Amino acid sequence: MPPDAPPSTVRLNKRMADLGLCSRREADAWIERGWVRVNGEVAPMGLQVTEADRIEVDRRAEGQQRQQVTILLHKPIGYVSGQAEDGYQPAVTLVQPRTHWSGDPSRVRFAREQLRGLAPAGRLDIDSTGLLVLTQDGRVARQLIGEDSDIEKEYLVRVEYGAVARGVQGAFPAAQLQRLRHGLSLDGKALKPARVDWQNPEQLRFVLKEGKKRQIRRMCELVGLRVVGLKRVRIGGVALGQLPQGMWRYLGEGERF
Description:
CATH topology of the largest domain: Alpha-Beta Plaits
Oligomer: single chain
Structural class: alpha+beta
CATH architecture of the largest domain: 2-Layer Sandwich
Shape: globular
Number of helices: 7
């Protein structure tokens, strides 16, 4: 009989990310500091491990991770999600003491260190409003925008159909609504099924599990609709709620995407 195949290996940083311990970048930083042990030995950079290997993380890494914040921002029109572009400011510039929502139930106090490494976990177009997540935590980023992410995003989308701006629901063909739900392709690739329903005669509710660039606007164009307003109201289990536009709050301890 042929001998058993050797167990497959992956880089330690990938294994730690797959286990949900941290992001790959965090894993590299911890390994560099000597905060990670594999089978009782301090792990070197680039180490290959198997599923059977025992991984231990120093308490200092866990303490550092607990201090990382995730911020929920109600992005207004005119701000870009990430790096500044074409003279427009990035949304992170809105995270400052005077724009911290007074209704935030979190007891976390704002500190300038919380801006270090704070990055958007997903995008929201410059002409769209609503919930944008900014985080220092690689685990949150991976959950929301990782390759295997399956988190729902919910949007309210105001539309027009040709010259019809009022009572769009009555003028829009049911077959085209069905195409929005499943049957469209973008960039040569079929889109995942989506939940699309009328919220009122001029507004659709979209629930997606993917986020291609300007996806909803492009989907609507394919069926003859023009988007005149787009607002993201939920990501996973976290809703925009009463958070005012241009203001932010911390993700609460009991909140989960």
